[in-house]
Amino acid sequence: NQIEDTWDGCKKFVYIGHVRAEKGMRVLAEASLKFESSGITVDVYGPWFPDLEPNLFNGMESIRYRGQIPSASVHETLLQYDAFVFPTLAMGEGYPGVIIEAFNASLPVVATKWRVSHEIVDDSVGIIVAPRNAEQLASAMMKLAEDNELYCRLKLNTRKRAERFASETWVGEFVKICKNLAFSTK
Q1: N or C: which end of the chain has fewer CB within 10 A?
Q2: Are 110 and 140 in contact (CB under 8 A)?
Q3: pLDDT digits (tens, 9 = 90+) for 124-179
Q4: The model's pTM
């Protein structure tokens, strides 16, 4: 297979979302210093918020800000990468749809154990790390880059996990619940 012949392992990570402090961007920048010469890169997409210094990634080899992308381009953009990184610390973080998008693109996820993200990401589809811990974040990313067996296992499981969140799945469940309620009241 031509793709397998050119694939160099899990080296290209991506973050898509608000580029702000509460999304863990400083932690991601600090983590990237720990794998600076490993060949691992992180591309960051999204609107840059004023709570981050504009030069946060300047002079860093392994992390780059790529600007904003339209919502319609998220899936196509994700397909260009090996894994997704989500180091959030946001107090209002809910179920991040971008993680489901990453699963739909067959990307394993490295995420912080924050709010409900660990309900979506577990050790079958990614690696969970402590929030605000650049050492653990870098270590998890390097583990995916170095352990091809782990990476491939997680990658295979992502599509199945994405199906759990598909609207078709939940419409079917809703119909079952409604039928059970309708027949149980007779």
Answers
A1: C
A2: yes
A3: 999 999 999 999 999 999 999 999 999 999 999 998 877 776 655 555 666 666 67
A4: 0.85
Phi-psi region at 181: left, alpha or beta (left = phi > 0; alpha = psi -120 to 50)? alpha
Instruction: Dig out the tokens for 89 from the structure.
Output: 């610390």
What DSSP line would sit under the chain, residue for residue?
A: -HHHHH--SS-EEEEES-BSGGGTHHHHHHHHHHTTTTT-EEEEESPBPTTS-TTTTTT-SSEEEEE---GGGHHHHHTT-SEEEE----TT----HHHHHHHHTT--EEEE--TTHHHH--TTTEEEE-TT-HHHHHHHHHHHHH-HHHHHHHHHHHHHHHHHT-HHHHHHHHHHHHHHHHHHT-
Whole-number Å distance between alpha carbons of 131 and 128: 9
Q: How far is CA 156 from CA 40, 104, 108, 121, 153, in A?
A: 21, 11, 9, 14, 5
